[in-house]
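Hey team,

Sharing the histidine kinase run so nobody has to redo it. Sequence (488 residues) first:
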Amino acid sequence: MEWASRFRIKLKNFQRFQLEQWIIAGLFFCTFLLIAHYTGLMGPSERTLFISLSLLFAIMTFVILNTKGLRFLTTQRQKVEKNTVRLGKLIKDADKRDSAVEEIQNMSLDPCFDEKPSPQKQEILAKIANAVSADKVSLFLPIENHLVRIGRWGIESADLEGLKIPLDRKSAIVKTFKTSQPIISANINSDPRFDRKLARLTGAKQAVCIPLTFEGETFGVLVATNKTEGFFGKEDVMHLKSIAFSIASRLKKISLEKGVGQRIEEEQKFLSEFAHHIKTPLTAAYGELELALTEKNENQRKKAIEFALGCLEKSAREIKEALDFYYTKTSKETYQKIDLHKILREICEVVCVLAEQKTILVNLNGKDQIFTTGDRNKILQAVTNVMENAVNYTPRGGRITIDLKKRNGMAVVVISDTGVGLPQKDIPRVFDKFWRGQTANNKEGSGLGLSITKSIVEAHGGTIGLTSRVGGGTKVQISLPLADSKPS
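Structure output:
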């Protein structure tokens, strides 16, 4: 270490200094002897007295010169003993911290993520506090646009359980979560980054906020306050980062497991609903085909086969729609800049053929080119689904209007019709899979059209909304992000 190296240098200098002292005293004594011998000015008794005095003077000179060196040696010995004790304490503290961190990393961290208090959670938070010599520790996780304290140790106030901090508040904890950077403060009462009211309630004076970050994603914030000895430093941040990494990695795993579980549950529900939905036409087709095999009347046999074919066509259409719904997610590699006005013109040309059969007037407003970015075929399919619904549920002589405009950085497509409309109680369910309202009883379809449209729009970073009233028609609004510029 540096201080040991300095001590060795000083010790060598001291030894060299002692040697110089002896040489100086010896030379001084010899000089007096030579003077006494060659001068002949002194008698034997005077010479003996002079030599004695010279020897005494030399010894006194050595002692006086050596006192400083002895004092230096004593001081250095004391410094060595002090530094040795300090070094031993540092090594002991470091071992204690490393042991605490390793123990936390080997524990099951799952209780930390439960919002309800538990002894296991308290034990984990107590060990975290012990690892950095803090008297208070809090764990915050993001829940519904808030950072919610789901765990606390050392904070007695029951009012602070479940503390919620809005993500738009100016707070050091929020800033740590958003920037994924640690924040340390030696005095949070005078630090504008911290909430003083919260500091008074918790009794915190100094704090360190560490983000729970794993693979570039931040899952929450770990906060330690009031170090029991000294101030929070780089070593504390390093240890808390190790603990936070372990917690974040477990959170990532839980998030993935939860996502996979939800996906499996959704797929199972979808398959169950689809199997139930397609069972009716297939059963009907099977029954009619059985009848056709035994029917001797040619006309009745033909009708049975035609009915069976109709059921099979319906089933095939519904299977196609189900596959469309299942594969609504597309790779961004297929994205391109799309002229929405051009897509709407193409859709109108196709839909107008059906609309003319019911003498429905279709108007497309807006001639400006407005561009979005996405999968052209999917966006075409999404808007077509809405347009076909408008034609199907608008009576003869009705009107369908399509508006295209820009609003707040979004390309907005609004499709309005003068159709039968929907009751208010049905509106929340219109985007549910396989749902069909009472007005759809006599209409063909699987009930997947608007679900497919919603999935496609959301996959492109957009939103879809619907308003309607019975007898007053329906309005569907699709908003998609604007492209940066027109395609070349």
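Residues 44-106 form the longest helix (63 residues).

Ping me if you want the raw files.
A.
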